[in-house]
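Practice problem 4.
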């Protein structure tokens, strides 16, 4: 059979990896796909780089629009990134009847609804395994492997840069700024790592996973996002003493909520540093690795682990999509896996739970005067809001020190209740600084 012809937009790290792995594993991939997958055209501004990688084996151009309108191209692989020209190119490719494979999580999280609607109208596939957790086949698992389940929640370490930084802070007891510089020196963190550090990259990936897990539209603007820049190494140390590790988690959960018509369903969507029990497998995911824990009602917990970035791990996901699209290329669109795992007319606009209504456990650190009655004042405020303390440690003050740290773990409570209690605690004269508040998840059911 004639090879399927791919147009590659962007031949940087992932594009280069895709070219290399396709060439290296050509016969194995052809045996799987049923026909050869051939990169026929490459668009990149750096033509010299494109030439070095492709060695004359593909048509090169600096004009990506010429690739998406090339009648010879069957599948467009978008590896440009961002929401500007990438969006225009993807929509143009779809409107020209081409299938699209993309690693662009920001594009899908922000413009996915528009892109999938266009793809459905045009009867083409948009595949995006590489957009979430790099080489881990989590999209495949959620959309197909777990399709018998009502997914209850997902908790993922889906940003390698921040996981590397948190691992180093814990291992070496170093502050965030020092570790970030080291991560940049070693090439783990980008020169501008702001999307990673602020949790935005994880929020893009979480948006996509939530959509396909629950059959809801992409709602990036509703994700509660907190990054790791303000995290103090001392909290990592105290958490460890209490039997917890701090990870930047993307969490999405199906919960019951009080709606206008009684109890309804709502979805939590949040990214923030989270204490998790050190004994959980996912707590031991270190360095730049990614892991996603999925709780389904039938299967229970399943854990997916691997490299979330890098040339060949991400190429692995891109090529898996190319194989899928090649196999389904001539199939009736009705027979294909729906973009969002659920049939388009069954996607539901389930409410996203406001953060103030989210119920979880909390870690609190307070700097207080070391004098009688301080604890009583604090616990009274918590008790008045039905917030129960589960564990507590007090740092032994050094000789002559009039101040100490109290660290508490609470039982489950609502975010709005803990925030109200914190405001009152901070107003006490014996409390000497802002209360540090982190969330805690058991991840056991
Ligand atoms: N910047 C991401 C990370 C990799 O650090 O995990 C690409 O999604």
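Answer key:
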């Amino acid at each position: 059979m004639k090879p399927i012809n791919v147009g590659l937009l962007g031949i940087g790290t992932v594009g280069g990896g895709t070219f290399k792995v396709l060439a290296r594993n050509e016969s194995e991939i052809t045996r799987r796909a049923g026909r050869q997958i051939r990169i026929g055209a490459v668009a990149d501004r750096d033509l010299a780089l494109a030439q070095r990688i492709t060695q004359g084996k593909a048509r090169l151009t600096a004009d990506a629009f010429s690739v998406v309108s090339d009648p010879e191209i069957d599948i467009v692989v978008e590896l440009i990134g961002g929401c500007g020209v990438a969006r225009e190119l993807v929509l143009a490719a779809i409107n020209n009847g081409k299938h699209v494979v993309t690693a662009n999580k920001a594009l899908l999280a922000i413009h996915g609804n528009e892109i999938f609607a266009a793809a459905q109208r045009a009867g083409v596939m948009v595949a995006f395994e590489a957009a979430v957790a790099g080489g881990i086949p989590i999209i495949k698992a959620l959309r197909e492997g777990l399709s018998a389940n009502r997914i209850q929640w997902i908790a993922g370490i889906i940003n390698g840069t921040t996981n590397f930084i948190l691992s180093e802070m814990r291992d070496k007891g170093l502050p965030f700024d020092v570790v970030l510089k080291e991560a940049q020196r070693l090439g783990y963190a980008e020169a501008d790592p702001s999307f990673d550090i602020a949790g935005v990259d994880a929020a893009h990936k979480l948006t996509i996973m939530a959509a396909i897990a629950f059959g809801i539209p992409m709602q990036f603007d509703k994700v509660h996002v907190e990054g790791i820049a303000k995290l103090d190494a001392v909290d990592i140390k105290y958490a460890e003493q209490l039997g917890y590790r701090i990870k930047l988690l993307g969490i999405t959960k199906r919960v019951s909520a009080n709606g206008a018509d009684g109890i309804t369903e709502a979805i939590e969507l949040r990214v923030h540093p989270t204490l998790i029990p050190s004994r959980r497998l996912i707590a031991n995911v270190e360095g730049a690795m990614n892991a996603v824990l999925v709780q389904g009602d039938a299967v229970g917990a399943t854990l997916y682990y691997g490299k979330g970035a890098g040339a060949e791990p991400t190429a692995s996901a891109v090529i898996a999509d190319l194989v899928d699209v090649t196999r389904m290329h001539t199939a009736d669109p009705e027979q294909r896996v729906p973009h969002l795992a659920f049939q388009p007319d069954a996607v539901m606009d389930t409410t996203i739970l406001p953060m103030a209504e989210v119920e979880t456990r909390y870690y609190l650190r307070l700097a207080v005067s070391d004098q009688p009655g301080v604890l009583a004042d604090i616990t009274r405020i918590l008790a008045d809001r039905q917030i129960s303390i589960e564990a507590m440690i007090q740092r032994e003050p050094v000789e002559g020190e009039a101040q100490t740290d109290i660290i508490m773990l609470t039982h489950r409570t609502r975010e709005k209740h803990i925030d109200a209690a914190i405001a009152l605690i901070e107003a006490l004269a014996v409390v000497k600084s802002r209360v540090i508040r982190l969330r805690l998840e058991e991840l056991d059911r």
